[in-house]
Amino acid sequence: MELQHIRNFAIIAHIDHGKSTLADRFIQLCGGLSDREMDEQVLDSMDLERERGITIKAQSVRLDYEARNGEVYRLNLIDTPGHVDFSYEVSRSLTACDGALLVVDASQGVEAQTLAVCYAAVDLGLEVIPVLNKIDLPAADPERVAEEIEEVIGIDCTAAVNVSAKTGEGVVEVLESIVNNLPAPSGDSEKPLKALIMDSWFDNYLGTISLIRVFDGNLVSKQKISMMSTGRSYTAEQIGVFTPKRLTVGELECGEVGYVICGVKDVSGAKVGDTLTSTRNPTAHPLEGFKEIKPRVFAGLYPIIAAEFEAFRGALEKLSLNDSSLHYEPETSAALGFGFRCGFLGMLHMEIVQERLEREYGLELISTAPTVVYEVVTTDGQVITIDNPAKMPDPARILETREPIIEARILVPQNFIGAVMTLCIQKRGSRKAVQYLGRQAMMIFELPLNEVVLDFFDKLKSATKGYASLDYEFIGFRSSDMVKLDVLINGDRVDPLAILVHRDQSQYRARELVKKMRQIIPRQMFDVAIQAAIGARIVARESVKALRKNVTAKCYGGDITRKRKLLEKQKEGKKRMKQIGSVEIPQEAFLAVLKVGE
Amino acid sequence: MRASLPLSLYVHVPWCEKKCPYCDFNSHAQKNPPPENAYIEALMADLDQELPAVRGRRLRSIFIGGGTPSLLSPKSVESIIAGIRARIPATTDMEITLEANPGSSDAGKFEGLRAAGVNRLSIGIQSFNAASLRNIGRIHDDRAARHAVTAAIRAGFDNFNLDLMYALPGQSREMAADDVEQALSFDPPHLSCYQLTIEPNTVFAVRTPRLPGEDAAWQMQRQLESSLEKNGYTNYEVSAFARQGRSCQHNLNYWLFGDYIGIGAGAHSKMTRDDQVLRTWKRKNPILYMQNAHSAERVGGEKRLSSDEICFEFMLNALRLQRPVTASLFQQRTGQPIKRFSSTIAQAQTDGLLQFDGIQISTTEFGRRFLNDLLQRFLPDPDNLISPSPST
User: Fold this and answer.
1) Class of domain B7-253
2) pLDDT value at position A476?
3) Residue from A559, A562, A569 to probe the interface with B (highest B Cβ count within 10 Å)
């Protein structure tokens, strides 16, 4: 296919603004799937993605579209994740595109994340077509939203397309606009092969699969290819595209998007962002790769059943093959036994990983309170990274503690400015700027990451009746007076419950934390004392009063089965708990820190 | 050695005048008189087929339970007892208990039952308070309750049990204490006191009444335990209180993991042979039971216990008792050394739930309060199974 007939594009949209439905319409119109095969929202193929209505992994779909001018165009839709935790995956996907659709819900308006992704697209030089979706809704106001896009993002909306992905209205116009307004890829098929690895994942049957965009040259089946970062060479065993069904092809031409399977043993051998070239006739200059993303949130994950540790390790190995942003290393806790300290991009990422481990690998896990990464300067001048409160050095050895700071951009209707201000100040934020954009305001704050990762987004949503949207990026470490808050259960320090908090908030947090724990820990055979301590000083305490007794039901003449079933059921309930000393602690207790209300 | 395990017989009578809303036993409301003759014939056919397994053993107790066995005529009860005696030899002092409900008995019947050979009555009083009885849907009132006890005594029963329930809907501590006082005024040789529990598949599970709180129930239990102790009763099993020498022999056989045959709809048997324990239960539906009484089809199901299960079930029963059981009894009844529970027992000792001196094991007072927590520790551990392999 000639370059002139190829369009590589992404869809930028906020969650629920209709990206997946629109993509489904494209697939339907271009005959990628029969009606029978058309399961709703085919792009989100993980169960979890479908349930949560979000995209986690980037995917691509090739659409062959016969335009009104009678010519057939090859449209490569490169799907992007929509959550702030996965923003780096978004920028990765955008690199492979020449244009993008900005899909905005015509009844809702622009959201901060959409804004951030859209700016990223503009920065990369992508052409952006505004698409106003959900015009079938009574509350839809495409004119107002178009104005807002012009005001807030600064994109010309005269060529905006009004659609209803749900009814199908206007969808053809979007495809036409892609053909007419988005640029064809540039590139030279005569030059040596130069292709970008956009994503790599592991398939149990096929091995490592890499999603690539060919920038120069052509890739043909059985060609010898090399990874430029490692210099190792492979044979392109199989190449193909997604329609969205996997379809083997003989060749990926310049400008095209598709996949390659070349016998790479593990995903680290086909690094995302690496450049793939011809072994015989290599290109001189690799493409500019991607920044490696560091995990920002860490938590310990432990199997409830100690014997599942090895199975857990295996599951993590497999999962990380498809999720290069998941970091893990073994750790031991006095209370929880053997587990792994895992690094995540954010709380959503953490939730998703835990859920996948439990669902897809049948594990039962306990997670410790998540923490961000701190830096500690010790008295002997060393700078240590702390990803686990238990590893905090003795206070006497600490010269300075530094915490990660982010810049948050909050887009909110102007009448909520006060509420957002109050919240951000409560969260130790400092205001950088407020920009007025039509009826909305863009508020820029510097906030400590540890205040943001836990429940900031939920709080922000509730303070603004759901209107605010948030985007943030890490800007650096800053000196901060952090203290370690320990939790003692019946006098025993429980390491996985320790958290680091700012000194100013330590009293309050301690009180709230023990109060929450009291609600979560069930009554047992004896009183349970819950204490919070900073160093040796107890700063808060609560107790769970002992249960009076069990209730022994009547045991009818020799029928032991019911009695036994009851005991088994009760024991099963306890299995979801972790025995710490002689106290049984439910899983939720370890996350109580997240639930400390304001 | 195993052949010498004590043997009891349980007879189930599956009918009641009305089903109580808290009851999850195998009982069926019966407006018309139950088919007594047909049922007795079924019982005997059932028993005939159990005989080969107990050849050479003597019966130590019979318990006719239900349901409401006192619905049966004394003549029917007589033929059941005679039928059993004709088939299995008994010890000279065999205990023969029959469960009676105040609503379905009169003095005349009690005399007849005594003449039929019943030497122990267990009367389902539940409460002497009219409001409490109404609240738990019993068909008898407080007068009938008192009358039933008087009638039993007048009929010459010197050995009888009164069933009491506490933590009833609308019951105050004073009301619960009064029930105990009234029961004591009859000087019963034996009392069973249960907290009302809401069981699945009952009317109360669907329309749950407001029950006294945990603290109130605990106080009621403490006050009844102390007043019974003051009056000379021994709390020999979790819910059972007896005067000297008046413990229920039939129930003791359950708690001490003896063998028993169960005949009648839904009745359970436990038989030990060659180190194997077999639990069997009869069909629950009375009609189907009677129809199939002459064949193996009368059996609803059976289960051969693993050695883990045998040991657990021994503990489940024995630890209900106040008196210690010996390690050698454990060995004798389960065929396993008690050592297999060493670490569980040691932990339970540390936690104050058990006492064990190497010879005798007994539940502490604390352990009795948390009996479910204690017993759970002896459950065969499903975690020992292979952990699920990751799905791909």
Assistant:
1) alpha beta
2) 92
3) A559
Q: Do B370 and A308 touch (CB under 8 A)?
A: no
Tokens for A460, please give them: 């922000």
Query: Is any Cβ of chain B less than 8 angstroms from the Cβ of A553?
Result: yes
Rounded to two decimals, the pTM is 0.68
Say if the Cβ atoms of B390 and A362 lie within 8 Å: yes
Phi, psi of A360 (to 5 degrees): -85, -20
What percent of chain A has a predicted confidence (pLDDT) above 90?
34
Q: What are phi and psi of A540, to 5 degrees?
A: -160, 150
Pairwise CB contact (< 8 Å): A564 & B270: no
Q: What is the ipTM of this complex?
A: 0.86
Q: CB distance A362–B376 less than 8 Å?
A: no
The answer to whether the beta carbons of residues A374 and A403 sit under 8 Å apart is: yes
Cα–Cα distance, B303 to B181 (Å, whole number): 44
* Fold (topology level) of B307-380+387-392: Arc Repressor Mutant, subunit A (1.10.10)
Tell me the pLDDT tens digit for each residue of A94-144: 888 999 999 999 988 887 777 777 887 888 889 999 999 999 999 889 988
CB of A563 less than 8 A from some CB of B: yes
Q: Answer left, alpha or beta for residue B358, where phi above 0 means left and psi between -120 and 50 means alpha.
A: left
Say yes or no: A308 contacts chain B, CB-CB below 8 A: yes
Choose among A307, A363, A570: nearest Cβ to B376. Answer: A570
Chain B hits for A525, Cβ within 8 Å: 351, 366, 369-370, 373
Residues in Cβ contact with A489 at an 8 Å cutoff, skipping those fewer than 6 apart: A497, A528, A529, A530, A580, A581, A583, A585
User: Can you tell me the distance from the alpha carbon of B121 to that of B162, in angstroms, rounded to the nearest whole number?
Assistant: 8
State whether A557 and B351 contact (CB < 8 Å). Answer: no
Nearest partner of A520 among A391, A388, A370, A369, judged by Cα? A369
Q: Does A574 touch chain B (CB under 8 A)?
A: yes
Task: Convert the pLDDT of each residue in A533-573 to its tens digit.
Answer: 998 899 999 999 999 888 877 766 678 888 888 888 888 87
- Name the strand (E) or helix (H) holding B318: helix B307-318
pLDDT one-digit tens code per residue, A21-40: 888 888 888 876 655 555 55
| Residue of chain B whose Cα is closest to the Cα of A582 | B351
The residue among B111, B213, B102, B113 whose CA lies nearest residue B164 is B102
* A chain contacts of residue B97, beta-carbon cutoff 8 Å: none
* Exposure b/e, A114-124, CB count within 10 A at least 16 = b: bbbbbebbbee
What pLDDT digit, counting tens, does each position of B340-384 carry? 999 999 999 999 999 999 999 999 999 999 999 999 999 987 644
Q: Give the DSSP letter of residue A435.
A: E
- Residue of chain B whose Cα is closest to the Cα of A556: B25
Segment A49-106, tens digit of pLDDT? 545 544 445 478 888 898 899 999 999 988 766 555 666 667 777 888 999 999 999 9
Model pLDDT, residue A437 = 78
Q: Using a CB-CB distance cutoff of 8 angstroms, which residues of chain A are in contact with residue B259? A: none
Question: CB neighbours (10 Å) of residue A561?
Answer: 13
pLDDT tens digits, B47-81: 999 999 999 999 999 999 989 999 999 999 999 99
Would the CB atoms of B372 and A570 count as touching at under 8 Å?
A: yes
The burial of A526, by beta-carbon neighbours within 10 Å (0-12 exposed, 13-18 middle, 19 or more buried), is given as middle
* pLDDT tens, residue by residue, A381-393: 999 999 999 889 9
Distance of alpha carbon B367 from alpha carbon B353, whole angstroms? 4
Residue of A nearest to B196 (CA): A553
Cα(A468)–Cα(A514) distance, rounded to whole angstroms?
A: 31
Average pLDDT over residues A410-437: 91
Domain ranges of chain B: 7-253, 307-380+387-392
Query: CA A264 to CA A404: how far, in whole Å?
Result: 36
